[in-house]
């Protein structure tokens, strides 16, 4: 990468050797009711001229702002709002916002309606329907916040004269969400034995440097997570250097997130496939969901499983990440879910969730049943105490009550 220095205020050109392109970087400043803002804007091109031209196009679009347009569609206005938010947000925060918009709002029937024609009732109907069919309370909350944030901005930019969400009532109580939440699932003791037995199955033939190896490439590591309770994004980011076998501690301080690949052009899918440019890429991020880094205790069973996993990884020359393919690539969340689905199927477990999160639920439930405090469980999982109580402990207590009632009913039935 060659960097060409220019005079102060003129930006700079960077030649990206790996891509054969030029990148032009320069700061852009603007002022609004919140004060003055400065943001570095980048643009790429095959030549310096093309890179600078594309940079100018980006800035021109932002300088002009949003012109009042009677026929601008809701979808187009929402895209303009995202362009504005991109300037004032961190990259990781913006990508989360964009993903939420695409998953929760772009799927609505409002997209092709002129934004000025959308009424309070249209949005209210959409949100009420989303409350009935949406996956969770937090999903509904995010959809609500997208609408209210967008319309506050649209009023300031004079795209609409009246904010239809101004007097909208937010369903503050989770009980108001009509859809019944899916019960938390986990592996019981019998399922755990079956799962570990299947996950640690070895191949029939010698294909690991002259010895039999794991049938599932990540099987030993996946089984170890029953006793660690890590999130899938944390687990695929885990490196062998983070695992301290001697002190029996695992340092959890980062995660791998699936992001849109900026090099991928959805309008040229065939060309992208030929060049081997993926639509999604894994990006390593420092920090975790609730911010604090944590140390997870490496208990004896997890230590045995990870020791075995490392033994086979070294034989294959895979000494970086704990979860890697045999070709040395990072495992993505989808591949682990696929492995989970296969393991559960052939293990014959009663729980057939096919979700990696079931291992986290199992870990929390095991710790609670052996008397570990809720505070220690929350610290181990890197979760909020209220989340642990409402999600894992509540479900275990509910199952315990049902089991108790069944025992009482059996005893009473024996009397007659």
Please estimate the helix content: 40-55%
Cα end-to-end separation: 85 Å
Strand content: 15-25%
In terms of structural class, how would the helical and strand content be classed?
A: alpha+beta
What is the element string, with H for helices and E for strands?
Answer: EEEEHHHHHHEEHHEEEHEEHHHHH
Largest sheet: 4 strands, antiparallel
* Count of DSSP strands: 11
Cα Rg: 26 Å
DSSP summary: helix tally: 14
Low-confidence stretches are none
Biggest sheet strand line-up = 1-2-3-4
From the spread of the alpha carbons, the general shape counts as globular
Describe the structure.
It contains 14 helices and eleven strands. It has helices at 48-64, 74-88, 91-104, 120-133, 137-156, 189-199, 219-224, 232-235, 269-275, 300-315, 333-347, 357-369, 374-381, 385-414; strands spanning 2-4, 12-16, 21-32, 35-45, 202-206, 212-214, 243-244, 249-252, 254-260, 280-286, 294-297. The protein is globular.
């Amino acid at each position: 990468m060659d960097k060409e220095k220019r005079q102060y205020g003129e930006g700079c050109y960077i030649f990206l050797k790996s891509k054969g392109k030029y990148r032009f970087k320069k700061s852009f400043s603007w002022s609004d009711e919140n004060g003055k803002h400065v943001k570095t804007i980048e643009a790429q091109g095959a030549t310096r001229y093309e890179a600078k031209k594309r940079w100018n196009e980006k800035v021109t679009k932002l300088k002009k702002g949003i012109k009042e347009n009677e026929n601008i569609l809701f979808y187009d206005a929402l895209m303009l709002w995202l362009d504005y938010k991109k300037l004032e947000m961190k990259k990781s925060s913006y990508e989360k916002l964009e993903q939420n918009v695409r998953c929760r709002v772009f799927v609505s029937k409002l997209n092709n309606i002129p934004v000025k024609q959308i009424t309070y009732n249209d949005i209210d109907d959409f949100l009420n329907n989303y409350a009935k069919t949406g996956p969770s309370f937090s999903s509904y909350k995010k959809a609500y916040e997208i609408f209210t944030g967008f319309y506050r901005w649209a009023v300031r930019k004079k795209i609409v004269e009246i904010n239809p969400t101004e007097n909208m009532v937010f369903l503050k109580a989770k009980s108001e969400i009509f859809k019944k939440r899916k019960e938390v699932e986990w592996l019981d003791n019998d399922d755990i034995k079956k799962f570990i037995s299947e996950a640690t199955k070895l191949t029939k033939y010698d294909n690991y440097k002259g010895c039999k190896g794991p049938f599932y490439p990540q099987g030993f590591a996946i089984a170890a997570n029953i006793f660690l309770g890590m999130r899938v994004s944390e687990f695929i980011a885990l490196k062998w250097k983070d695992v301290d076998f001697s002190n029996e501690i695992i340092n959890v301080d980062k995660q791998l997130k699936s992001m849109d690949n900026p090099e991928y052009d959805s309008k040229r899918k065939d060309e992208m496939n030929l060049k081997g440019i993926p639509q999604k890429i894994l990006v390593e991020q420092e920090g975790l969901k609730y911010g604090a880094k944590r140390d997870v205790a490496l208990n004896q069973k997890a230590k045995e499983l990870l020791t075995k996993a490392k033994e086979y990884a070294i034989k294959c020359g895979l000494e970086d990440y704990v979860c890697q393919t045999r070709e040395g690539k990072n495992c993505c969340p989808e591949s682990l879910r696929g492995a989970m689905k296969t393991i559960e199927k052939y293990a014959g477990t009663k729980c057939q969730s096919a979700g990696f999160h079931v291992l986290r639920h199992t870990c929390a439930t095991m710790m609670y049943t052996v008397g570990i405090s809720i505070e220690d469980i929350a610290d181990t999982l890197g979760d909020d105490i209220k989340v642990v109580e409402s999600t894992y402990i509540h479900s275990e207590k509910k199952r315990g009550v049902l089991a108790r009632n069944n025992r009482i009913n059996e005893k009473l039935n024996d009397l007659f």
